[in-house]
Amino acid sequence: MLTKAEVVLFSASEIPNKLNDKKVVIDCSNLKKLSQIIANINAIKANKIRPFGILLHDFHCNKNADLKLFSRLKLNFPSLKIIYRVDEKKVHIDIIQSALNLGFDFLYVDADNFSKKFIHSVQKIHIRDKEKVDVKHFNVFSELRKNIDKIDDELLELLAKRNTAIKEIGKIKLKNDLKIFQPKRWKNILNESLQHAKKYDIDKDELRKILETIHIHAIKTQLNIYSKKVDKKS
After folding, report:
1. What pTM value is reported for the model?
2. In a domain, 128, yes or no
3. How far apart are CA 186 and CA 175, in angstroms?
4. Domain termination site, one of 76, 96, 123
5. I need a labelling partner for 70 at 20 to 30 A (CA). Which of 31, 86, 220, 229 fits?
6. What is the CA radius of gyration of the chain?
7. How does pLDDT run across 134-157, given as a tens digit for each residue?
8. Are 114 and 129 a contacting pair, CB within 8 Å?
9. Spatial strand order in the sheet of 106-108
């Protein structure tokens, strides 16, 4: 855990004159967009200050937007620590534990503003700081990862084949003056796929999001085909 005694919290608009030996943490508690956070980081680096970490607040592992933000921060700034700002009034212990399970590096706690009971609960949270699998599980773990890599390659090949078919269908739709979006067919595809979600142990809501993303890409692909035809006419 990090406390006030160990860090200096500030945003890009509030850079202090003296930092002493404290860890510099960028307060991004009120920011939800990656572009805003990156702007803060760059502004601070421009002042020749090397930040230790980024402070996030009101983060929920069950929100896709929050998970995307976290993963992009980790990818773009691997050396920066991602720190969870604990708010007793808003955050349950289970949510904090989920954040640490995900990969947050530290908790930031202002102990003066917390009840002793809550501080005691926070101290019981399990910290996962290992980076490698133990010898006992290494071979199985490595093999499973290889299988996932192979499946990912197969998925890319299938998506490429699907995209080729989408383009051909788009050309036929164009020649026959059909509208791109076919709601009845899309409804049938969606309903049929969602019916199989339980069979394959896939969450329905997550499956819907995946299918909708693929469908939107197909629509954009066919819109591009139609727009090229219009360009040729003009």
Report:
1. 0.76
2. no
3. 21
4. 123
5. 220
6. 24
7. 889 999 999 999 999 999 999 999
8. no
9. 7-10, 23-27, 53-56, 81-85, 106-108
